[in-house]
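Work package 3, deliverable 3.1, input record:
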Amino acid sequence: MIFGMNEELHIKLQAFLDGELPEAEAREVGSLIASDADAAALHRELKQTRAALAGFEKRITVPETREFYWSKIAREIAREAAPRVADPQHSVFSFWRRLFPVAGVVAALLAALVVINRYDPRSPVGIEVAQADSDAFTYRDYEAGTTLVWLSYPAENGLAQENTAGKIN
Amino acid sequence: MKLPTLCCIAALLLVSGLTAVRAAEMRLEAQLIWASNTAQSPNPKHKPVDAEVRRKLAGLPLKWTHFFEENRKPIRLTAAPQKVELSDKSAVEVRQLPADKVQVTLFGNGKEIWKGVQPLPKNEILVLGGNAPADSAWLVTLKRIE
């Protein structure tokens, strides 16, 4: 590889090798190869590389003619780029598809409503413990029908205390 | 006025009337209870709580095993809230609310120490409690009778 050679010349040499340059430009590049050692070396290297890879390149052929093959690609590009016009049948399905999430939400709400309506706080669904504030916690046993509210009222202020003298405070 | 409209109004009046009658029937019983782990109370006036209350209290997560009744007061709820004194230190005020609910206010030493709204269907019991000296506890129970 010849380092330091500018990219434009590199591309031109490759194009020269591939026979893609116009005649005038091809002549210029040919003169350069003849006069410039670096250009000649790069041309040689590219030629060798091309020759080395030529054996490994798989030749792909398409059944259609070249023009028809490319026109298919052009048609596909045009089809992808064109705005979609929905046909009536497609629109109906799209409408129902958009309706599915709304229907799902409505169904979930109805289900929740049914559950709430069937909920009976007196039914034996278990025990619930809650702390509404820092001064009290609530324990509820639905099955037994009992609710306990325990207060952090100072013990020395007990509301029903039996002291040793047997006096109720 | 058309007949269906009249029927609807009559039905509404009937339902509201029945509700009012039912609301006026709420009767409760308040108890002040001393909870302890000693089998005998030093107060000869104390007596163990009745079997039903004891069973309800035994089902609660309380560490005490013996419950003594200090005082018991019936409460007949009308439109106005009812306040009953359970001891020199404690009183409870109950106000009837719709849908089998009551608003309960507990007073300790003349001050409001708790206030809450509680569903209280028939035969259910609300227990308010707190620690007392000598590893005992006080309980105020409200039981719906009617």
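The first helix of chain A runs from residue 7 to 18.
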